[in-house]
Amino acid sequence: MAVVEYQSPTSVEEAISFLTSSPHAAKVLAGGTDLIIQSKGKYDEPLTVVDIKGIASMVDAELTDDGLKLGPAMSCARLTARDDIKAVYPGLVEAAYLIGSTQVQGRASVGGNLCNSSPAGDTGPALIANRAICVIQGPNGTREVPVEEFTTGVGQNVLEKGDILVQLKFPRPAARTSDAYLRFIPRTEMDIAVAGAGVSITLDGDGTCTDARVGIGAVAPTALLVDAAAQALIGTKLDDAALAAAAQAATDASSPITDRRGTIEYRRHVVGVLVKRAALIAAERAKGA
Amino acid sequence: MKTHVTTTINGEEVEFLCEPHETLLDALRNHVGLTGTKEGCGSGDCGACSVTVDGELVCSCLVLAPEAEGKSIGTIEGIADHDKLHVIQEKFLEHAALQCGICTPGLIVSTKALLEENPNPTEEEARYYLAGNLCRCTGYDKIIRAVLDAAETMKGAA
Ligand code: FES
Ligand code: FES
Hints:
The structure holds 2 protein chains of 2 kinds. Chain A is 35% helix and 27% strand. By secondary structure, chain A is an alpha+beta fold. In chain A, a hairpin with a 2-residue loop joins strand 4 and strand 5. The termini of chain A are far apart. Chain B has 5 helices and 5 strands. In chain B, strands 2-1-5-3-4 form a 5-stranded mixed sheet, with helices on both faces. In chain B, strand 1 and strand 2 form a beta hairpin. One FE2/S2 (inorganic) cluster binds next to loops of chain B.
């Protein structure tokens, strides 16, 4: 792909019409941290890029009593600077903070990370834990897809020609609910997840878990919602047996590959450990939420 | 087809023509004549090409040149005040925080962004913030000493 045309529309409708009317391949440009690299070096196919960052709703975030409406192209740097959002969805902000270097965070976005649909994307598990809904607008109107159904395979998702992810919607968490995201990498910074886990926990007044959501990443072709892990936690005080059962459920749900970052056995084990630890952090946070 | 771009670089309005596939890094070096910004990897991994776009620290190799339209860009050439070096630049010299110098413009631009955001970073915070700026010569220790000393000095001056 070689970029032969750059468009910077100011409305979603205009962006959709650029995407559908281009005589050759056309792609949405958000932060470009994946797309610009993919388009370098291979000069076979012409590409039109449609930069959506000139559309205000794509790069803004609105936090209300009903929840969060996140512009999918808002940079991770701007998202992680939002203390109000961090207070309500700390795990989501943690995931955004783990994407690449400071410079990459200046461009990369949660929506871009999701639409790139890498199995190791850091935002997937955190979006799942927070019950995110993807609002998609295209030539045939608008539809909503739960985030756990958005990615369909490695590098693949439900977006069709002319479709744009225009918003990520999050319900406001119930009282005494919080979340956490953890990933394991072999270094301390700037690497691709070997495994990741996002967990949201709701506690009642005496510390019993009344609701939970568990998302795991980098251990299957897509990030996964693991309902069995959540069920293992609900109704317990997150004692060792409950945590061990949730970890086992995550291990059982995973189907990782072996690569130079980790073997199948290792990833299956580590994802369980991360679920356990993320659940404990989320629970600690939920006490104050 | 060439794209015409009007942008602000280090406070001055600049116009250039570019191909749509060119990056901001290409445009700075080849069309605007600002060669202080370096290309290490061209893929967002090394930070040698660090600049600010509307105040946000980014890799200019991961920005398309046409995206600069209407934006305000900050590069290494805008750090010194004419002949007077910025404290960060002086501290890099004083601590010998460079050898070949390829990483240095990016590190200085990034350090300035760091200290604007967090004037009083711990060593750990500085190391994390600058983790995207790779240096293959110095071993980082002198760089971090220079950054922390610059922070100290700038606090004293403020
Ligand atoms: S040249 Fe841009 S990050 Fe290396
Ligand atoms: S001084 Fe040579 S790369 Fe840093």
